[in-house]
Structures are given as structure tokens and as C-alpha cells.
Amino acid sequence: MDCERLREEGAELALGILPARERAEAVAHLDRCPDCRAYVERLTAVGDGLLALLPGAEPPVGFESRVVRAMATAPTAPTAPTAPTAPAAPAAPAVGRHRTRWRRFRLAAAGVAAALAFGFGGWAVGTVVEGAPPVVAPGPHVLEAALISPERAGDGREVGRIYAHPADAEGGNGWVYMSVDLGDVRAVDGPVRCLLLRADGSTVPLGSFPLRAGYGYWGAPSPVDPGTLSGARLVAANGTVLATAHFTTPEVN
Amino acid sequence: MGLPLERVPDEALLSGLATGDPEIAVAFVRRFQRSVYGVAVAVVGDPRLAEDVAQQTFERAWRHAQVYDGRRGSVRAWLTAIAHNLAIDAVRARRAVPVAPEDLETLVGIVSETPERHALADDAAERVRRAVAALPREQARALVMAGIYGMTAREVAAFEGIPLGTAKTRIRAGTIKVRALLEREETR
């Protein structure tokens, strides 16, 4: 996709209604074109603004208690790796490096890596665009894995998450999205390469993307059927393996 | 002692959901339920289904409270976007056509309604409302179908009985015009 085509379809992308194949092409273009990315960012405000115009409505009697009861009995409890900001002290939220890192990972873990990968704001586009792959949780056919730094494998800490979405029903490419944060210890600036690993041991170069201070996120169309994928590897410009991932069944519902 | 829950900022209340405190959950739901349910019922039309969508919205917000990133928008915008997404999915699972013609007309009227009380306001929502109101009717319809009902250009074309290219043009023109009007007002 070139800039002219992107400008034609930018509104549909911003409103989250572009069909899967065109969306993947558009996102790949945005990944390498800051001007078009800025263009689509501006348009996302329209979709957000439309939702804000919908009038509020009072839900049926008992809604509040039903929701709270459902929260209390839902099978997946929220995790809180850091102390949550206590409502009693809202003026002093703990927004340190660790919290920021963790937020980034939770974003990925909740399946919104796609929105991050697009690199533009706006909740509407962020959530609607990812609607083809499900919104908050990866679907059963989406592969998901932790990116583990070889130097950190021992302490079990992730340095990112990676998702491999299957091709759509029309036979378009699948996508791979990832979010990486190497943390304070290994602040890396510059491009990193992503290699996909097949179950037969072969590797497929997917592309490269920049990390800034060890942090970055990226999405790209993938020529590899997730059914044959076994993992992925992130490699620095000097050949150092920064992180590896081994795909298993999705862990987030 | 802290603030009463009614006065706790939105972001702090959302963070507090992770504590599992039912009082915080009640305060959170109470604060946002009208917005969430409003989006749900506008998109799905059916109150019972809208209630399900709204409930799922809060459950997801609760499960992923830590996901929220204030740099990307307000808590209310985040919740309404989740509700919007779920509502579109719910409609698609049940109906071939996402909207009835009369419902579309009603909603176009709502989002472009500019009585004096709206015209005097100068918040972001009212600027969007004025911009939508300034669109040719067919572009406003296309924008509502795409932006609220989540209809693709192909679906808009089928609904309106127009060529696909015309539907795409209406969606694009409506979006760009609204954005341009908003930017013009923002720079005043």
C-alpha cells in the first residue's frame, strides 16, 4: 500500500471498519510512514467524538448489583503485580519505571498489542481495529507467548509479549504483533530483527523495528501460518539474541 | 482518611478495582453505567442485549483495570470504546443488517441535534456535534453507520443502495470534514 491508497482508506481505518486484509496492509504502511500515521491519528478523534455524542441511558433496576456480583464470581481474577493506587490517596499514584513496564505488558497481555503496534491513539480505533482479532483477549487461534531474555530466563521475567494472528477467511496474510521492554538493565537503542521459528527448525525473517531505551512495539503481516510456528527470536544489530518466545496456547481469556 | 469514593478521580477508582473491594466496584459501576449502557443500547437497540453488553464491559474493565493507560484517553472513553466494540460484535452475531432504517435516522438526528443549549456549549463533544450537523445528510448517515454501527463501506453501500465507491467517498468525506471543522474550532 502506498500513501495515496492509505489516504483513501485512512478514514475507514480510523473508524475501525476496514476489512482485515486491507487493515493489515494499511498497518504495515503506517509502521513505516510517520506522515500517514499522523494523518490517521487525526482522524481517530472523529470516531471517538461520535461515541461521546451518544446519550447516556439508565440501565434496568438491579444492574449495578448484578455487575458487582458478576465481578466477584468471575473466573479470572485481576492480578496486581504492583500495589494498586489506593483510592484513599489518589493524588500520589505510583508511576515508576516498574509500573510503566508492567502496564506495557498488561496492555499486551490483554490483547491490545495491535492497537499499540499501530502507534496511534484513540480508544475507538484502538479497540475497534483489533476487533477482527478479538478485542480484549486473543481468540483460540491466536498464538501468544512471552518474550524471554536469555539473561533473564532464570528469574522468569518477561521482556515482552508476542502474538501471531492467523490469516483471515479470505486468505490474506496473518499478522504478528509484539511489545518489548528490555528494562533498565539492557537499554537498547536501534533496530532489532524479528525471526519467526518454524516447528521444523527453519527460520523466517519477518522484519526489523526500532527499540528506544529498550522499548518498542511492532506489528507486521506474516507470511507464516501460525499452525507451523513454534516461536520467535529478537536479534540485535550485532547479532545478540535479545529475547526468544515459544508459542503455546493462549493464556489470557 | 481519604476522599469519599464519589470524589475519587476516575483513574484512581479504576486502579482501586484491582483491590477487589466491593465498595469500589459499586462506586465505579455507578459512575459509568449510564455512559456504558447508553452506548450499548444505542448500538444494539435491544435493552436486554444492551444490558448484557454493558455487564460484559464492566467485567472486562475489572479484569483488565491495569491495562488502562491515561495517555490514550479518559477512563470514560476507554469504557465506551469497550462497550462499543462488544455491542458491534453482539449485533453482528445476531443480525445480518446492523441497523434498522428508522433507528439510523433517529441516531443521526441525535448526534447532529443542535438546539440552543448545545450550540452555546463549547466542549469537545459539542464541537463534534456541530461538525456532524454541518455535513450533507448522506455523509452524516454514512459516518454514523461506519463510526457508530461499525458498518463496512460495503455494508453502507448495500444499505443505501449505492455503489461501493460512493459509500467509501461519503465515509471519507464525512470523516475528513468533521476533522477539519474540529481543527478549525480548536485553533480559534
Description of the molecule:
- Chain B: Belongs to the sigma-70 factor family. ECF subfamily.
- Chain B: Residues 28-95 form the RNA polymerase sigma-70 region domain.
- Chain B: Pfam families: Sigma70_r2, Sigma70_r4_2.
- The complex is a heterodimer of chains A (253) and B (188).
- The relative contact order of chain A is 0.14.
- Chain A has an eight-stranded antiparallel sheet with strand order 5-4-7-8-1-2-3-6.
- The longest helix of chain A is centred in the first third of the chain and has 20 residues, at 34-53.
- In chain A, helix 1 runs parallel beside helix 3 and helix 2 crosses helix 3 (34-53).
- Chain A has helices spanning 3-15, 20-32, 34-53, 63-73, 97-109, 113-118, 123-128; strands at 143-148, 158-165, 174-181, 190-198, 203-211, 215-222, 229-236, 241-246.
- Among the domains of chain A are: 3-49, no CATH class; 143-246, Sandwich (Immunoglobulin-like).
- The two termini of chain A are 33 Å apart.
- Chain A is of the alpha+beta class and 253 residues long.
- The radius of gyration of chain A is 19 Å and the shape is globular.
- With 188 residues, chain B is mainly alpha-helical.
- Chain B folds into two domains: 1-100, Rna Polymerase Sigma Factor, Chain: A, CATH 1.10.1740; 104-187, Winged helix-like DNA-binding domain superfamily/Winged helix DNA-binding domain (Arc Repressor Mutant, subunit A).
- Chain B has ten helices and no strands.
- Chain B has helices at residues 10-16, 22-44, 47-63, 75-94, 101-111, 116-119, 124-133, 137-147, 153-160, 164-186.
- In chain B, helix 3 packs across helix 4 (75-94), helix 5 (101-111) packs across helix 8 (137-147) and helix 8 packs across helix 10 (164-186).
- The model of chain B has no long low-confidence stretch (mean pLDDT 86).
- The chains are: A alpha+beta (253), B mainly alpha (188).
- The interface between A and B is large, with 68 and 85 residues.
